[in-house]
Design brief:
The protein is an alpha/beta fold. The model has no long low-confidence stretch (mean pLDDT 94). The protein has helices at 18-21, 33-36, 44-57, 62-69, 78-87, 102-111, 153-166, 184-187, 203-213, 228-240, and strands spanning 3-7, 92-101, 120-124, 126-128, 134-136, 173-178, 195-198, 221-222. Helix 8 links the parallel strand 6 and strand 7 (195-198). It contains ten helices and eight strands. The longest helix is centred in the first third of the chain and has 14 residues, at 44-57. The strands form two sheets. The protein has a six-stranded parallel sheet with strand order 3-2-1-6-7-8. It starts with a strand and ends with a helix. The protein has a domain at 3-16 and 74-125 and 148-239: HAD superfamily/HAD-like (Rossmann fold, 3-Layer(aba) Sandwich), CATH 3.40.50.1000.
């Protein structure tokens, strides 16, 4: 009887987008218009690469970035929820699948002492170069037309489940907690017994509603959350069963 919890990171665990929060380190806390307008849909990682070059060129160092990132607030109720999951690891395996990067997530989880709650983190690999610039790579390559070029969360989830099965681990239920458009692809992979938990008022909830209106609803159950205490109530029910 084990459950798999899959979390997105930005606007789900934290109440902000880590990639846009880093702009607080820029001169005057903003990016030049040319850089801001250089984003092309589906190519966010490349865009952030240019942002990190701009920060590096302006002398923004690793310690300043770290200080800034660890001030991001967690979503309402999330600290209690992660504490609860950490105390009940015999029931819950827990992973993050995120379009952020390894360094940002690592800093934020370690600063709040939540690193041990998560069994694995799947996100874009990041390192600081010898000259002190933050560089980020695409997580993987894939052939999914629905997802950004650097990350298909369905592929990540499927590969994780396959690997767990090889180890003899299968899950009674998958609970997918997210907010964004790129969370729809893995949600559509979930089975009837699984549950999608989209954040209220965010893109994922709207896309799931649209599918239901188009008479092609997702297979899994859907439970909308606005505070992480809604998620905790559901997990407490699962634990009782």
């Amino acid at each position: 009887m084990k459950f798999l919890l899959v979390f997105d990171f930005d606007h789900t665990i934290i109440d902000e987008n880590s990639d846009t929060w880093i702009v607080k380190c820029a001169p005057d806390r903003r990016l030049p218009n040319g850089l801001r307008n250089s984003y092309q849909p589906g190519h966010w990682t490349e865009y952030m690469g240019r942002v990190f070059v701009y920060l590096g060129d302006n002398g923004v160092k690793e310690d300043e970035m770290k200080r800034t990132m660890t001030t991001i607030p967690f979503t309402a109720g999330m600290i209690d929820l992660l504490g609860f999951i950490g105390e009940n690891k015999e029931f819950f395996d827990c992973i993050i699948v995120s379009d952020s990067n390894t360094i940002f997530i690592d800093w934020i989880l370690k600063a709040a002492d939540f690193h041990d709650v998560f069994d694995e983190v799947f996100t874009n690999p990041a390192t600081f170069s010898s000259s002190g610039y933050l560089t980020v790579q695409n997580f993987h390559t894939h052939h999914c037309a629905k997802c950004p070029k650097n990350l298909c969360k369905r592929k990540v989830l499927k590969e994780f489940l396959d690997k767990q099965l090889e180890r003899g681990i299968s899950y009674t239920q998958i609970v997918y907690i997210g907010d964004g458009g790129n969370d729809l692809c893995p949600v559509m992979f979930l089975k009837k017994n699984d549950i999608a938990m989209p954040r209220q008022g965010y893109t994922l909830e709207k896309k799931i509603s649209q599918l239901a209106q188009d008479l092609s609803p997702v297979q899994c159950s859907v439970l909308v959350w606005s505070s992480a205490s809604d998620i905790m109530s559901y997990l407490k029910l699962l634990k009782k069963e």
